[in-house]
Fold each of these.
Amino acid sequence: MTTLLSTDGLTMRFGGVTAVDGVTLSIAAGELRCLIGPNGAGKSTFFKCLTGQYKPSGGRIFWRGRDVTGLDSFAISRLGIGIKTQVPSLFDGLTPMESVGLALRRLHGEAEARRRAVRALERLGIGALGHRRIGLLAHGQRQLVELAMVVAPEPDLIILDEPTAGMSADETNRAADLIRELNREHAIVVVEHDMHFIRAIARKVTVFHQGRVLMEDEAAHVFADPRVRDVYLGKAVS
Amino acid sequence: MAPGARTGLEIGAAVIVAAVAAVYLPQVLELFSLINATVWVSMAVLALSLGLVWGFGGILCFGQTAFFGLGGYTYAVASINFGDTTWAVPLALLMPTLLAAALGYLMFYGRISDVYMGVITLTTTLILFKFASSTAGDEWNIGEAPLGGFNGIPATPPLNFPLAPDQQLVPEQIFAVAVLCLVACYAIAKLVLRTRFGRVCVAIKENELRAELLGYDVRLHKLVMFALAGMMAGLAGVLFANCVFVSPTMFSLSYAGQVIIWVLVGGIGTLVGPVIGCVLVQMLTTYAGTLSWIDPNLLLGLVFMAAVVAVPKGLLPTASGLLARLTGRAQL
Ligand SMILES: Nc1ncnc2c1ncn2[C@@H]1O[C@H](COP(=O)(O)OP(=O)(O)OP(=O)(O)O)[C@@H](O)[C@H]1O
Ligand SMILES: [Mg+2]
């Protein structure tokens, strides 16, 4: 299978803190990958490097074999990489229709963008909220709006940083269904803390710990591994 | 109502109001008042330009007067040298646009934060003020035009008909041209905000990171928006030069501050608001000047403070909010 995205020794330092420490990882086309790891393991920072929000201190990033290290965020997005950030990133003063429309306007004409925006919102069960102000929506609804903005332009790789945080059980199930469905056509990398959710969607799991990849395996093996348990229980790992 | 129809309606209304003003006011106003009104209209264009870049581009520009003054000076110098204002006008639009583009490039591509943008733009206009004030003497002639130091260029010629230097516009005509320019700027701003570019600018103001992550080049959008507003401010300078004359005051702190007050009073995030704010504050200034029992600046300061406390969103948003409540329509 072709490799979509890969990193080679990716490193991000903040002063004395090494948040991402020589991560080498690759995502194949069509893959659904879960990233797990305790708080502060460096998952979000890793994503910020991938999406150009941070310029990495070291290492390389490749997209379909091409070195894209250090590109600006908008240029990375144009390659076909969409991200839902951990801290929701929305246009609070706009409506979901306007926001999703804008996500699509880069690729489509006005009418087509509107049609696709309606479809994207309906797919996530928030069609009725299309003309509300995003700033007035509930947290879970906002998560869904952001998800709609990210998936509507159909990027080749979708990065989701804790997409279900703050969602109701119902919304979480809908998101899990959506992720599986999206995965038929898009590669997805998702960070989650909820083990049931991961079991429900994942095949391959990568465990981050202290900025490094601790292990990478099938979900069942990962959860059975004592090292992973130690990490989550806060014990030191040698 | 469809957004397109609404934009059309708003522009149509503006055109009608302007046409009435341009025809009717010159008939009823004395010459002095008419020239004063022209000054206000030119200031309104300046306010509109700041309302656009600040309210819709989210760019805090404390030195919009830099482009205003540069437009005026370019117009004065070029028209004196050409002996004709026809080509002086486009040149006077070009120079502020270039300055804004250069300044914008430094600020946006240098990833300077909002507060420093305010500082840098304000500093720019103050530097130009200092510079223009220090240009007394013959060594500061540009071609045939003396920059004139603190006195400016009293010989700033009024507009003439295109390519007809001896057919100068009379004050009534200049007033009409100024009103036309104000409406044109309003319509252009309205239409630009309806394009994808304009919507992306508004989205950038809402959330820069999200716009970038959707694949939009944030810095380029800001640069273009900033340059466009710089051009409008330059046009305001040309109009101002036509009813007063150019002098370093155009770059001064007091002017730079006033524009911000007009926009704040009128309402950030609207286009008509800054125009209304500009005219109201100027009327008040004029009125305050006739009072002997209070210092006009003190009165203005008090009124401004009261305005900030009473209508923090600005007059227009507050008024339309009230109207919406009165008519029972849900406010979006
Ligand atoms: N901008 C920054 N400046 C300094 N340190 C940072 C910065 N961003 C992240 N860090 C540090 O880097 C480490 C990794 O943080 P990161 O947010 O990537 O972890 P995470 O795995 O996403 O955690 P969580 O599960 O809580 O989201 C943490 O120790 C954090 O304090
Ligand atoms: Mg995180």
Note: Strands of chain A lie at 3-14, 17-28, 32-36, 58-63, 66-67, 81-84, 157-161, 187-191, 204-209, 212-218.
Amino acid sequence: MTMTLYHGEPVGPSLTVLAALFESGLETDLVRIDLGLAERHGGAIPLGFEANYSVEGEGPVLVVDGEALVDSVFIGCLFDDLAPECGLRPTDPYARWEMMAWCRWMIERLAPGAAALANLAWTTPRLAALDDASFAARIAPIEADDLRARWAQTRAGILSDDHRAASEARVHEAAKKIDDRLADRQWIMGEFSLADLESYAWLAPMRALLPAAFEDKPRLAVWLARVAGRPSVVRAAELARSADPVGSFAPGPEINRWG
Amino acid sequence: MTSDVTLYHWEPNANSGKPMLTMVEKGLSFNSHYIDLLAFDQHKPEYLAINPMGTIPAMTHGGRLLNESTAMMEYVEEAFPGPAMMPEDAVDRWRVRWWMKFLDQWLCPSFSMIGWSLFIGPQVRERDPEELKAAIERIPLPERRIAWRKAIYGLFSEEELAESRRRVDFGIGKLEEALAKREYLGSSQYTLADINLFNSAYGLPSMQPDDVNDEKTPNLMRWLRAVARRPAVRETWTYSRVPRFAERILPLIEEAA
Ligand SMILES: N[C@@H](CCC(=O)N[C@@H](CS)C(=O)NCC(=O)O)C(=O)O
């Protein structure tokens, strides 16, 4: 099995997948791409239908024997399937259910909100700095109409008041959910797991944008520091090339259209 | 029944049908608890005590609660004996999970939006307006509150319905391609992804006969019949109480048999 991981700066889904890889002890080639400039679609990666229509949007891509795999939690599950002792997932079926349901909440509720706020703050200025022709050339190869539309909206800095309010509410909810969860434990599942990585990767960047969501949550603050200090996360963070990788987002999951 | 597993479900389709069909395929006996979605049973205090999200389905195993239908299916697969409903190969497993997410978060919400605008909304709209208003207020998840409001008052925009129709048409094409490539969805064996899809797609040949038929989508039709032929599918439909849903699947089951 040959594996190549195309990843962006260690933030959001790229952080989850890089840290999960280091947790697993598996070997892959690492290739850095600038997800925020649509380099994923530059032609070097053999994107298939699944990668083109990833619900996660512009996350990292793991190419396994020529097939492009996406969606950070499922790449994490794959690492865990390949290295079952690595602890990315608990072994008990009920704990596994709880972890998958937890990650689903983060994917479906936190991620779209966090991505919308992060992109407006950091990706919009990057894209607005491109001239029209260069932007058009970068997004032309994107297959999914709805993803291409999100790129155009991101460049134009469009986020409706309703969507902004819903996005902020989700960041607040996620921060509270994690803080509550930590009342009797150090990690979300008791032991460290993929749930810590996925939650951290989306929530931590929000400290810069919505500090109010983090106020008076001492357990959350300690957990954020604990995850940041995890050797796999430290190793992923060391791959950063920018002074602050938090600015390296890319259009993420869409805000749910239907309940 | 003596089972320590109870499933809280509505009709044996969509999200409710996912864990139910998985249980039946695994040969797991369970207590069935029908929650009438159209009577807003899912927002009543008795049910909120079981599933505070007020969504269907939920299950209990002993004293433990589970919700989120896709995660429930994986639990049923892992916690109980019976035939394997996930492939062995790690990349196949990834693909099965990918498809389930694509269905849960991209394609099926579009099916659902159309279904709610055409069927659920009109069905419920006739009731006492004050009662409906109160019913909406009781919905715990804000997204579900918005969904019900749109369905009841017919507030779907033309634009969002058009986008849902686009996704359904596009999705049908992609399903056809995927099922031309592999015998089942994402792998060469019947898995949780097939259960997931079947529960939302069984009505396509009868509801969109011009788009889903033996000429245009031969692989999707082959696959629909193969799944419809399974005894477990027939068994789950014995739990149906709304004839309108059963009417849509029974012809497919009969024809496939
Ligand atoms: N992600 C959840 C969604 C559950 C869900 O929304 N179910 C719908 C029925 S298919 C529901 O409960 N609707 C009731 C309501 O909105 O009041 C799952 O997969 O279980």
Note: Chain B has twelve helices and four strands.
Amino acid sequence: MSQYGFYFDKEKCVGCRACEIACQIWNDSVQTVKWRNVAMTFEGSYPDVSNVNVSMACMHCGDAPCKKACPRQAITKDDETGRVTVNRELCVGCMLCLWACPFGAPQLGIHGRMEKCTFCEDRPMGIKRACEEICPTQAIVTGKIEDLAKFSKQNVSGRLLHDESPGVLLGHEGN
Amino acid sequence: MMDKFTFFWCLIIVAMTFFFIGVYKNFAVKIGFILWVNNRRHNGEGIGWRENLALLIPLPNRQVVMDEALLQRRIKNRSEFLWLRHLLIFSGFVVIFALDLFLTFAGHYAHHYFHYEYFLSGPGKGLLKFGMELSGAALFIGLSLGMIHRIVYAKAEKTYVELKLLLLLWLVTATGFLAEGIRLAGQPNDPLMLSSFIMRPIAQWLGTSFSWNWPVLADGVWCLHATFAAAFFAYIPFSKFIHILSAPLGRSITQNGEYAYQKRQRISEGLL
Ligand code: HEM
Ligand code: SF4
Ligand code: SF4
């Protein structure tokens, strides 16, 4: 089994929300609410302002809390890719999965069923996901989790030479 | 032969065993896990128990509870027809269930233990019967509409509505009405006949047109009704009916996306 995931670099994200749009366009036939959201936080006042943008969707957790929380066993984890998906025929739209999810990822669609990132289910693996492809600053990178961990370490160690807060979010919560 | 109430209590015990095992496995354990996993996430953040509790179980405001749990306005997003039919099923079920429980306790048990008759043979019973006919009718209409719609639009609705679920509750409701009608067919002088405003004309027609053994038939249909009702309760936690418990809770807590927004904000604040 492989586990694919997202790597997100807050230092690179400029908050343009292109990833949100790319996600909506690519998944148009199955998406009725936003699956990817950019959370923005500002602190302080001019001229001392700091800001962070975090682009978040489902992280396809290793031991997915949403899957364990679902009373209908509607959420499954794919053996091949590690992607976590909702079966709309089983889902009753109770939103317990959202209560359990650390990233606030599952959203209730207009059909009253849970929807969330499918890791671009209909895109062949090995090419970039829609959000990753559009990101003008390469703040989102996807791949196998081992490769992302290496990539993250390289990035962090490179940055530690200049900066004490590397600030990356590695997208895959193992338990 | 086994007395019909002995049969009923045997059924209840079996059904409730299934019900509680299912509720434990598919609901209680899930809620416990959600609280545990959210709590684990906040551990070490140095927050007090009050704030922690508010994060674990955020109290939804009154408007959210009204919209999500009582009016289920979100179903309206799909269509007004679906909303109306669900509201008929929901309100019909809740009212008839409450009245049935009230009749059992304030009627049968109050009579048995305190010789209090008002809700068993007095005017109170008429009132309860009237309410049960009315809510039963709402339930029956909602379920019938649901089944017809699901059969006609089978292709589009297959993903969202389960026919066997509707059919089971429909059978509970239909046999309930039938049991009442057949009982009244054999008791044309029942003083509370007026309260059964739906089944009265049917019962009178049955009673005058056929000369069957009504009391025996009534007991048989009553047992059938009890069997379907028990099967329905046993099936709740193992089927889409679990949403009766999980949807009002989960939807009220997650507050129309507000809870998701707050979770994402906390993560971004953590990275600031
Ligand atoms: C208490 C709050 C409740 C909520 C929030 C709720 C919510 C829902 C939702 C979202 C659906 C799917 C509708 C759709 O999109 O097609 C549904 C279906 C259904 N519900 Fe409920 N429900 C509740 C209570 C009940 C109760 C008490 C009953 C009665 C036993 C019931 C019986 C049904 C049935 C039979 C269906 C399938 C048929 C249909 O879609 O109309 N529900 N419910
Ligand atoms: S991020 Fe949320 S929705 Fe995605 S797998 Fe993890 S718990 Fe489930
Ligand atoms: S909303 Fe659907 S997927 Fe989420 S917990 Fe409820 S039934 Fe499971």
Note: The two ends of chain A are 17 Å apart (CA to CA).
Amino acid sequence: MADLTTEFLGIKSPNPFWLASAPPTDKEYNVRRAFEAGWGGVVWKTLGSEGPPVVNVNGPRYGAIYGADRRLLGLNNIELITDRPLQTNLDEITRVKKDYPDRAIIVSIMVPCEEEAWKDILPRVEATGADGIELNFGCPHGMAERGMGSAVGQVPEYITMVTEWCKKYYSKPVIVKLTPNITDIRKPAQAAFKGNADAVSLINTINSITSVDLDLLAPQPTIDGKGTHGGYCGPAVKPIALNMVAEIARDPETHGKPISAIGGITTWRDAAEFMVMGAGNVQVCTAAMTYGFKIVQEMISGLSQWMDEKGYASTSEFIGQGVPNVTDWQYLNLNYITKARIDQDACIKCGRCYAACEDTSHQAISMSADRVFEVQDDECVACNLCVDVCPVENCITMIELQPGEIDKRTQKVVEPEYANWTTHPNNPAAQAAE
Amino acid sequence: MGNSQTTPGIVAGRLPADRIQENFDDLHPAYAPHEAAVAADRCYFCHDAPCMTACPTSIDIPLFIRQIATGTPEAAAKTILDQNILGGMCARVCPTETLCEEVCVREVAEGKPVEIGRLQRYATDTLMDAGKHPFTRAAPTGKSVAVVGAGPAGLSCAHRLAMLGHDVVIYEARPKAGGLNEFGIAAYKAPNGFATAEVDWLMQIGGITLKEGQALGDQITLPGLKDSHDAVFLSIGLSGVNALRAEGEDREGVEDAVSFIAELRQTSDLTTLPVGRNVVVIGGGMTAVDAAVQSKLLGAENVTIAYRRGQEAMPASKYEQDLAAQNGVRLMFNVQPVAVHGNGRAVEIELEYTTDTGSGLTGTGETVRLAADQVFKAIGQTLGDTPEGITLEGRKIAVNDTGRTSLDGVWAGGDCASGGDDLTVTAVAEGRDAAMDIHATLVG
Ligand SMILES: Cc1cc2nc3c(=O)[nH]c(=O)nc-3n(C[C@H](O)[C@H](O)[C@H](O)COP(=O)(O)OP(=O)(O)OC[C@H]3O[C@@H](n4cnc5c(N)ncnc54)[C@H](O)[C@@H]3O)c2cc1C
Ligand SMILES: Cc1cc2nc3c(=O)[nH]c(=O)nc-3n(C[C@H](O)[C@H](O)[C@H](O)COP(=O)(O)O)c2cc1C
Ligand code: SF4
């Protein structure tokens, strides 16, 4: 069986699955049970400064979006950082790390944007024996209004500054957790590495209102008739997180820098995808909150089965291997031409492909009186919409036209050479090929 | 041959070959991948799941279903087989309606459980069809264990012991391994030679020698086995059959249901297997239902199950009763046989109505006669001869939780041992647990 042992910033864990800083890692009781269930590491729930801890609302903190059969697809929360005393958390971290030396424990921290505040807390965190720290520059609600969390994460200069303080007062790895509530994710990542961060982790939650109570006419979760925006996470945010991870992985300024991926990771497959896109490991929150700690067993068995099938002996063999395959639109091969094909044996004749193509795409699917659906190659632009809406897996597939064949839509012969938009005659800025 | 459903007597070929073939097809056809995905999606991944508790082998059901849902049926199979090495057979024959699926929260809430049995089959079939055996043996311990009987209990015990590094010799009285998986289970539950294929697959672990035609009490004795092995596991099932105690029981046409089923299971061309025009099955359990349904599927015109108590007391589950009814079997309750009539061979059976007086069942005196050229006795099996000195509990070998018998170095499990229901899955669990205790004893 494949070896899932993963080394991230020199921190070894038996598998690449860590729990993200959030309620699952809020206390010793949880973390011990998580380790017993098999999690490779945890990022402890974010600690604040010494003094009276923050208080949370006393009504509902979460809102949700569902798929069919009430499957939770997105979760929104208005929780703050830990609301337990600093010393309690530090004592617990010390105890757990001592009992689980083979698991990673990272301490998440969010204190005011003043050097003194960081100078105070870092030696106390270092004394716990934890393996590293994560700077929470991401929380989008409650803390941002106090000049912390995403209020810092949205200003690259602050990120660099605080990271530098941390490198000054703390000797172990420093991970900077990024907020996605920003236009260009590469900027805060660059800023973190400029401040000598050892890694970035992303994403934290996305500003959101999940739903509105139509009786109260107020956002949900509703607290005494009012609601506020919260942080969105869970399966729904995965595509956004995946893009952001890939953007940082392929940015020449940050290419090859360690990334811990977070955002909607629910199955072994999600984890593998993030790692292929450049993440050295992954962090999970919503999936654990939805199904319990036990899901890590599926992540472990699934990833190792996939690795065995692909012949990867260790996670380092596939981490980042897909990054060179992420490119800009203008470099995609315009001579790569496909046509949709409907497998008539697999087709159940629901007609969804027809509705999609006829009403909203290119009128390239024909329908006979006895409900036979066929692709008309002279109209099909290969958009893939029919494939995506078909309820039967592999019923509609994309067939690649071979060089020399005629594309019936354009009546042109398929060229064997790669050609992209930068050289296309329709592009006003096109450069003639040499 | 020209026989039909109405040909008198006990004859073969009552139905055309293609009808018979169709009749004995898979009761629950295998899932296609898309069906499996849809079925798996219905599982809620319950915490401390009731289904898992209800499974005698405690398979981690939520985990294996999630593994199917996430596209790794092979990992799902490993999860199943870790707990239950005959997970493939159990997926086909377990009365899930009274085990895991009965307590599925979706059964309780909606009357429609997650189809755990079929999902289990999807996973194990995927792995076994690929010819993979996901277990390897530990370093040799130098210890040797004798397993007597190659049914589910014996096979499960042998596999676990072999995996732990022990050498195992299975002594089996019959010429073929599998026990009731091979000779008892209804043909439509495990068609296409699955039982044989599963034994071959299980043996891939290595370290297990199968000796057929070796009956305890005949070719081999317990003292002999104890001399040549470090431990003995008895898994000899129930080889005896209860007597009917009805007049004319010895008439031709009166047979044990289990013998009929065993013959059926070993007949490759079912158009050659004779069956009566009018069949009456005495009993109320799974064996009675299986004998009745299979008689009907072979082409018997009239098949009746005669059970001596009321429907609520019938050991066959509601699902099994419905299966019988759907196949056109008539269920009669509160009747017991008093005589089989005929001139040398059975022609009619005389049944007497019964009533439960509170202190037992008595005949009311009122009788009814049914045409019956074939009568199957399905009134329970009993333990055959047991080794000298072994303590019995009721009519079974007395064992503790981990299968220890009253004799030092001798364990027992499955149908022959006390405790647990007489089910394939229970036999597997007992074989496995005894293996763990034998292992602890031998290396501890
Ligand atoms: C007709 C019928 C249908 C059934 N259907 C189902 C079903 O659908 N689902 C279900 O869960 N359960 C079913 N059962 C019950 C199930 O088959 C048994 O509970 C299970 O097979 C018990 O396993 P075992 O290993 O204890 O015994 P067995 O399967 O009986 O195996 C015992 C083995 O020991 C051998 N043996 C016996 N005596 C000796 C000896 N002296 N020396 C050497 N070897 C010996 C036998 O030949 C046999 O191979 C059915 C039973 C019957 C009879
Ligand atoms: C209830 C809740 C509380 C959270 N608290 C924190 C926190 O204290 N610190 C932090 O860095 N991230 C926090 N997060 C964000 C998560 O760590 C994670 O980045 C985010 O949920 C995306 O991952 P997911 O899709 O797996 O949930 C919290 C998330 C949730 C749902
Ligand atoms: S999960 Fe439910 S029961 Fe538990 S604290 Fe939250 S609201 Fe209360």
Note: Chain B has 17 helices and 19 strands.
